[in-house]
Every structure is written in C-alpha cells, then in structure tokens.
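Hi there. Long-time user, first ticket. I'm pasting a complex I've been working with (about 237 residues overall). I'd like to know whether the download I got is complete or cut off, because the file seemed smaller than I expected. Thanks.
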Amino acid sequence: MLFSEELRAHAQPIMTAIHEHPFVRGIATGYVPREALIFYVEQDFQYLSEFIKIYATAITKLTDRTEIKFFANAIDFILNSEIHPHHVFCDVAGVQYEMLQHATPAPKAYLYESHMYRAADTGLLLNILAAFQACPWTYHEIANKQVQEKANNQANPFKGWIDFYAKTDDDSQTTVSDQIFDWIDRLASDATSLQREEAMQFFLKSCELEWQFWEQAFYQQDWKFKKTISSATLKHI
Ligand SMILES: Cc1ncc(CO)c(N)n1
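Hi, the file is complete. Here it is re-exported in full:
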C-alpha cells in the first residue's frame, strides 16, 4: 500500500466529519449564516498570509528548481487566485473584503499555524508536505463531492467557491493535491518507518485542524479574553 493511501485511509473518519460539518453542508445547500462567513474570511485571510511564510521556509530546505517552483506557484496561488473564493463569501455576506483583512488568529487558527511551523522546524520536507497536504486535499474532496451532488448549480450563491476548489490543473488533469501525494510517496519510500509515523501524525492533526477551522468559524470561537489580550501594549514594560 502506498503511503499516501495509508494517509487517506487513516484520515477517513475526519474527512467524513468535514463533509458533514454544518458550515460545509451550508456551502452545498446555499445557506451559511453571515457571521460564520465573515469569521471564516477574517481567519482564512490571516491564516493564508501565514502559510505564505511557511512555504518560504520550505523553500529554504530545497535545492531542486522544480521543487522550488512548486512552492513558488503555491505562494502565487494564495496571493493571486485564492482571493476569489474569499470574494464569493464576502459577496454572499454583503461585506467588503478589505474590511476583513485585519484579524489576528483565533485559537484554532493559531494552533494550526503553530502546528505548521512545528512541521517546518523538523527540517524534513516529508513532514512539511504531510502537514500542508490536509489543506488542498480536504478542500478538493469537499468541492468534488459537492460537484457530484450538483450543488454547484446556478441557484447556489456558493457556486463560484465550489467550482474554484474542484478545478484540476488544466494541462495535466491532475490536481495539486495529487501531485503532493506523489511527492510524499517518493519521499516516504526513502524514509524510515519512524519518519513515516511522524509524517502521519502531522497529516492527521492537520486534517483535524481543518475540521476545527470550520467549527471555529461556524460558532465564531475566539479567545475568551480577547479584549484583554488585544488591548495589551508594551508601554508599561
Ligand atoms: C484553513 C484552510 N484550509 C485549506 C484551504 C484551501 O487552500 C484554505 N483556504 N483554508
């Protein structure tokens, strides 16, 4: 069994819970509460900005130009393409995207970002890719399933969001997530079983954190002492 198949098999209960999450179901049925959409975009905007920095860290581990290009493309994708699904949510919520670009990470986003940095700190590309893969993989799975359900019909205000994440790489007909699984398999074949176990942990925790990210937005879960934390300044120190 390929390592990527093992990853997917172990993540199945989490993936099922993501498909069934009320936020994700709401995208399919065309209704998500406005507060949830706003909280999501605020958090995702800052989360993706942090992701760019994590990709940049990954680039420092590479020498092969094709591999470097992969991460450079991923950065370009976040900066120039992934703003589109955010605009879809903003349009439905009736808010200006520019208004949602100043948030600080809520607890689960903070945890997810810290988890990614922890993977990067191991210095192993296998861990970085495994931790990162939950991101494109789960979104692609969500969108594909919703396309199969014909949720991306003209009447659905989230059609643009679903179509965006269901898209494949036009030339090769493979998705970014397929390419990453291939890359993970190549690295895993040279790894020890302990290293594979560590990568598995990074992947599964990222999958759970994807579920948590939807949950956090749906219920707008923020720091309990947000005002205290965000009003603190260093002026007395
Ligand atoms: C939290 C999260 N995971 C995955 C994606 C898809 O890239 C995203 N935009 N945000």
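A couple of notes from our side: Residues 3-217 form a domain with the Heme Oxygenase; Chain A fold (CATH 1.20.910.10). The pocket of HMH is lined by residues 44, 47-48, 82, 135-136, 139, 210, 213 (CB under 6 Å).
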